[in-house]
Design goal:
- The chain has helices at 19-30, 43-57, 71-85, 108-136, 157-176, 195-208, 212-223, 232-243; strands at residues 10-13, 34-38, 61-64, 90-93, 139-144, 182-189, 254-257.
- The protein is α/β, with parallel strands linked by helices and 264 residues long.
- It is globular and about 55 Å long.
């Protein structure tokens, strides 16, 4: 029986020191890929994470703390990753931030930051990764969009705009690489219990005077028919599938994993 392996490949995952990005990074590492981590956090904890992943999966890791709103820092990260690992084979654009407010009250600096991190950063990493991928005639670009790239919610104008834009960028990248060994696809999660979503749960529990468990059920009931959170591990398994031979002709899709959210 053929066992799929990413041994010898290198994956750069932005925003991968926690949450969805970390889940995807670990799934790719479990398949044999070396990992370049990126994100904010305590450096001691991040280095411990790198060591732990190396020991658990027998791969190599690196870390770069590039601020994904800064094109020059993104360029430095890509250059360093390519230097250390002789190229980036798998690029996962996961970094993202959120802010909630009505359009007329939405701070302009928050709009600019969300567009920069959630959308423009994917352009900057992709343009720098593509030449090496095309030279090898193999590459996987995976953009973490959202159900909010497919449908909208009130008070999330910048996030929705960025995620819709990311899906459009995914399709264009897929078309430009259609006759190469490089693929580009988007993953659109529904509610995932990341630290970011946990903050929304905590706020709801406090606002409504209910327990954390009840707040979770109320949050899910609004949008996600399954009544269950999507897990980072499930998203990681989908990313690994995109990297496999079976994913070779999956190009330009926006694949929602959302417990039925957009089926309504």
């Amino acid at each position: 029986m053929h066992t799929f392996s990413l041994k010898g490949k290198t994956a750069l995952v932005t925003g991968s020191t926690s949450g969805i990005g970390l889940g995807i990074a670990k799934s790719l590492a479990a398949a044999g890929a070396n990992i370049v981590f990126n994100g904010f956090g305590d450096l001691t904890e991040i280095h411990a994470l790198c060591t732990s992943v190396e020991q658990e999966f027998g791969i190599k890791t690196a870390y770069h703390g590039a601020d994904m709103s800064k094109p020059e820092q993104i360029a430095a990260m890509m250059e360093e990753a390519i230097r250390q690992f002789d190229g980036i084979d798998i690029l996962v654009n996961n970094a993202g931030i959120q802010h909630v407010a009505d359009i007329e009250n939405f701070p302009t600096e928050k709009w600019d930051a969300i567009i920069a991190i959630n959308l423009s950063s994917a352009f900057h990493t992709t343009r720098l990764a593509l030449p090496g991928m095309k030279a090898k005639n193999w590459g996987r670009i995976i953009n973490l969009a959202s159900v909010h790239g497919l449908v909208a919610s009130a008070q999330k104008s910048a996030y929705v705009a960025a995620k819709h834009g990311l899906i459009g960028f995914t399709k264009t990248t897929a078309l430009e690489t259609a006759q190469t060994g490089v693929t580009c696809n988007a993953i659109c999660p529904g509610w995932v219990l990341t630290p970011l979503v946990q903050k929304q749960v905590d706020a709801r529990a406090e606002r409504d005077g209910v327990s954390n468990d009840v707040a979770k059920k109320l949050l899910l009931a609004e949008k996600q028919p399954s009544g269950e959170f999507v897990t980072p591990e499930q998203l990681g398994a989908l990313a690994v599938f995109f990297c496999s031979d079976a994913g070779q002709q999956v190009r330009g899709v926006a694949w929602n994993m959302d417990g039925g959210w957009v089926a309504q």
